[in-house]
Design brief:
Blueprint lengths: L4 E7 L1 E10 L7 H11 L6 E7 L5 E4 L10 E7 L22 H8 L37 H17 L7 H16 L7 H14 L13 H20 L3 H4 L37 H15 L6 H10 L1 H8 L5 H7 L6 H12 L4 H20 L3 H11 L8 H15 L8 E4 L7 H5 L3 E7 L13 E8 L2 E4 L5 H14 L9 H11 L9 H11 L1
Parallel strand pairs: 1-5, 6-7
Antiparallel strand pairs: 1-2, 3-4, 3-5, 7-8, 8-9
Length: about 525
Amino acid sequence: MAGRVTFRVLFGGEDDARKLIIESGIPNTVEEFALQIKTFFQVTEPFRLQYRDREMDDQFMNLSSASELEDKATVKVVFMPSDTTSSNPLTRDASPTIPGTPSSVSSSSHGANDSDSYSSNDTIILSSPETRSCSWPKVFVVPRFSYCAEMILHSGNNEFNAHGTLLSPTPKTRSDILQGLAEEIMKYTAYPKDEQLEEVAKALIQSHPCLLEKGTRSGYCGWKHYLKIKMMNFRSKLSRAGHPEVAVNSLKNKRTGQEKPAANIKKPRKAEVNFCPSIPRGETRENMEAERVALLTEVKKKKKDEAEIKKMMQHTFSLRRQEVLQEPAIPEFHNRWPALFDVSEINLEFIRLTTIPLTSKFLGELDRLTDNFIKLFNAKGGVAGRKITAIMAQMDNNEDINVRRDCVLSCLSIYLNEDLDTLVKEYMDIESMAEADVAEKTMGIYAVRAVGHGPDGPGNGRFADVGVVLEGVEVLHNLQSVSHACVMLYGLIYALNLSYPKSLKRTFEVYQKILMDLDSTTLSPKVQALKIKLLQ
């Protein structure tokens, strides 16, 4: 069902009720709905969902089908009991159940195998070991190390707490600790940033204070240095083992003229979680290529099997990503993967890459911050202020949410001393949109005005057609608005591993780090200043 919907979500009981808004409408599957709740409310524990059943006198019943959902419905989050962990530091943890993963959402909704769907207790579980389930955690949890290392650390911590004596680990113990940390880091990224390594080193000292280093400012500078070297060596081992995320940067896989270790390193730069996943176990590139050809045949049918297309798109994700990282021309890639260039598939691809919903998160945050943006825009003076005032005038006596979003995004670019018009080109009618304009466009959005709906006329802001162009190819059309096209272009930049437009670098940084909250800890000075003012 299309259109904005609202849900009342209960966490335990009536005393903890929260509001959930989904701009894209009611999800198609329970798994997708659970993922929306997981990402929006930052839920980390396994859970199942219940809804009020009118036929059962509004009693809560387990949610097994998205058809039971409706606008303004009340749903209840029921957390699943988990096994308690022994307090004995030498006891190894069992593998945890991970709820609401992108694999379970996309594959189960596409009719994948039984392991991708709900289990008997309706808990969403991770179904594919080749893909990651979450981005870098807000709090890094130090893993358990080898039996001997845990025993030594347990004794060392007791001695530190009793007498303040620091532990001097042997090379073998240090190696075990670093190996455990490297494997834990790899669950989130193969290329940790400097601040992430510092976070891990700090967490290690907090968990095991006996490892504190004397003579250093922070007490863990040496551990951070050890970690940096360990991750380099760990990546070398993974590359030799054929791990695609690091093997893609080996010298033999580099292009001619880039045969240097530090040249054109391909790694997550926009907070991607599954940047270069492995081919699923039991599959080969030849099998995946055969499935891609079958997918291409299915897409060209007059009566397409949408569920089958989604299933095959999910299954071929790793092959598609490895092709993307070879930087193919967009026209060629469009011909090989036409199913990707669809609004629903762009949303699903974004979830696979980041674990975060695209459209609902982007537009939901934009709507939530609109009033704060408008206050900032109204305070802007000079030439930029006059431009903003002219654009904001289009919102007067116009309650269309798309007009409002279009105006806010245009004003945002001007506020950042950029211009969205460098990306968006408007045409008064379809005849005036020359094919040459599209063919020459490397990256852009076109908008064709509806008949009788100019920017200052009645029903202002309405378009007959809005689309996205990449390298001269019209990859999307018939979008709802310019703001929706911006969302789709942002999603395509992730799906195709493209760079942000240089003329709108700060605008897209706001999209990523403020609206989508991806890698939001490191901001440019201008965007940092904007964020501070928004929160005042």
